[in-house]
Amino acid sequence: MAEFGADRPGFAWQDPELDALSLAYQNEGYRYWVAELDGRIVGGAGIAPFQCHWPATCELQKMYLSPQCRGKGIGQALLDTALSYAEGQGYHHCYLETFEPMVQARKLYESKGFERLHAPWGDSGHSACDCWMMKAL
Questions:
Q1: pTM (2 decimals)?
Q2: CA distance 37 to 16
Q3: Rounded to 5 degrees, what are φ and ψ at 49?
Q4: For 2-136, which CATH superfamily applies?
């Protein structure tokens, strides 16, 4: 997140669950995946229920990928896995929040059918995010 200037208040870097992701994703409808390459963790992505005006909505959360691993299909695999899980859980929409400087991430989301929104859905607590997207599942 520091790479894009997102290591400040209003972004996920201050979320308390970052200290114990395994605990944050234990409940029904929550899941987190870790990508490993050559014995090193190089990325991850999560799905969790999201409260907003649409019922059965989940949020793609904390999707991270090491810079040296981008463009190798790892992010696509993480996102495909997360979206497949979300559909299997009966979610109707997948929502995400990101940051305009994260161009590669936005292109990945758009390639998977995410559409830009004019305003955020619900209250994620990430007030500094400036790009909101959703995908109908």
A1: 0.83
A2: 26
A3: -60, 150
A4: Gcn5-related N-acetyltransferase (GNAT) (3.40.630.30)
Q: Do 21 and 33 contact (CB within 8 A), yes or no?
A: no
The identity of residue 49, as a single letter, is P
Q: Cβ of 94: how many Cβ atoms within 10 Å?
A: 25
* Look-up of token digits 């409260």: 51
Question: How many residues are there in the chain?
Answer: 137
Spatial CA neighbour of 70 closest among 136, 137, 128, 4: 4
Q: Per-residue pLDDT tens, the chain, 137 aa: give them.
A: 444 445 545 555 455 566 677 788 899 999 999 999 889 999 999 999 999 899 999 999 988 888 888 888 999 999 999 999 999 999 999 999 887 777 888 999 999 999 999 998 877 665 666 789 999 99
User: What b-and-e string marks burial along 40-58, b requiring 16 or more CB atoms within 10 Å of the CB?
Assistant: eebbbbbbbebeeeeeebb
